[in-house]
């Protein structure tokens, strides 16, 4: 079994009287694709927001590489190597692909506003941006205006932007949402490649995609974790079959 990179213990988030995430404990191993599935409103995006620091939990803990990061700011969590995408695209449509990756790479750089580090920073940012573009498979489109590309390519670029921050851990919230079959199979391929060197939490509706790339699966319903563990085990769990997957 691979080493545990990220772990939540009893993670809970309430909005008023609503328990959006209720006592969720899961573990993500090194270079593992951990998919989170569940119906709309199950608490999947809230989980991602908790893991990335965009929301503070009401209870529970988040442990990343052995360090308790509960309540840590999104900026700090990003510097620790956790990169995330959002459910909606987050690109700058009037900028080129390269410029989008450049901006993402810049956002990761420590002390980026310090003038005396400028030349060193320039090379580092450039390298990160190039790498992000390459890893997401859009090197050939580096000078193309992002908004002129297909929706699928824009989502691909968004993954490139996350990669340009040089993360070791990826949180992707529905990266294939709204894509056609061809586009989503390209992203599945991309994610399968990334899984060789990154740990990944993937929120996804597309079950074919999940079953083809996930190693572990967490099923959420109404904020609660119905099951979590190796893909086949969770897939065949009678409670999961009944409540979510059907037959
Ligand atoms: P999913 O991503 O699984 O569709 P979400 O995590 O977005 O679900 O939402 C879980 C529940 O929490 C939903 O009932 C949603 O309306 C509620 N919720 C999410 N974010 C907020 C918020 N910022 N304020 C109040 N309620 C929220
Ligand atoms: Mg969501």
Structure report:
- This protein is α/β, with parallel strands linked by helices and 247 residues long.
- The chain has 2 domains: 1-81 and 168-247, P-loop containing nucleotide triphosphate hydrolases (Rossmann fold, 3-Layer(aba) Sandwich), CATH 3.40.50; 91-166, no CATH class.
- It is built from 9 helices and 11 strands.
- The chain has helices at residues 44-51, 74-79, 97-108, 118-135, 151-163, 181-194, 207-213, 231-235, 238-245, and strands spanning 4-15, 18-24, 27-29, 33-37, 59-64, 67-68, 82-84, 169-173, 199-203, 216-221, 224-230.
- The chain has a 6-stranded mixed beta sheet, sandwiched between helices. Strands 1, 2, 3, 5 and 6 form a 5-stranded antiparallel beta sheet that branches.
- A hairpin with a 2-residue loop joins strand 1 and strand 2.
- Helix 3 (97-108) packs across helix 4 and helix 3 (97-108) runs parallel beside helix 5.
- It is globular and about 50 Å long.
- Residues 111-116 have low confidence and may be disordered.
- It binds adenosine-5'-diphosphate and magnesium ion.
- Magnesium ion binds at residues 44-45, 87.
């Amino acid at each position: 079994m691979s080493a545990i990179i990220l772990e939540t213990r009893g993670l809970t988030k309430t909005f008023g009287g609503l328990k959006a995430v209720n006592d969720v404990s899961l573990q993500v191993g090194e270079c593992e694709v951990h998919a989170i599935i569940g119906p709309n409103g199950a608490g999947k995006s809230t989980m991602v927001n908790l893991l990335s620091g965009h929301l503070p939990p009401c209870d529970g803990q988040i442990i990343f590489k052995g360090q308790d990061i509960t309540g840590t700011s999104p900026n700090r969590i990003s510097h620790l190597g956790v990169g995330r995408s959002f459910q909606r695209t987050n690109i700058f449509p009037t900028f080129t692909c390269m410029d989008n990756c450049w901006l993402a790479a810049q956002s990761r750089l420590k002390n980026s506003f310090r003038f005396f580090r400028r030349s060193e920073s320039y090379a580092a940012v450039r390298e990160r941006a190039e790498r992000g573009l390459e890893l997401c498979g859009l090197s050939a489109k580096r000078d193309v205006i992002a908004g002129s590309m297909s929706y699928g390519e824009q989502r691909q670029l968004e993954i490139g932007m996350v990669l340009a921050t040089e993360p070791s851990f990826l949180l992707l919230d529905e990266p294939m949402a709204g894509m056609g079959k061809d586009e989503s199979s390209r992203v599945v391929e991309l994610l399968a490649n990334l899984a060789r060197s990154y740990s990944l939490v993937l929120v996804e509706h597309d079950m074919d995609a999940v079953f083809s790339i996930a190693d572990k699966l967490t099923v959420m319903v109404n904020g609660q974790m119905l099951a979590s563990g190796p893909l086949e085990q969770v897939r065949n769990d009678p409670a999961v079959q009944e409540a979510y997957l059907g037959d």
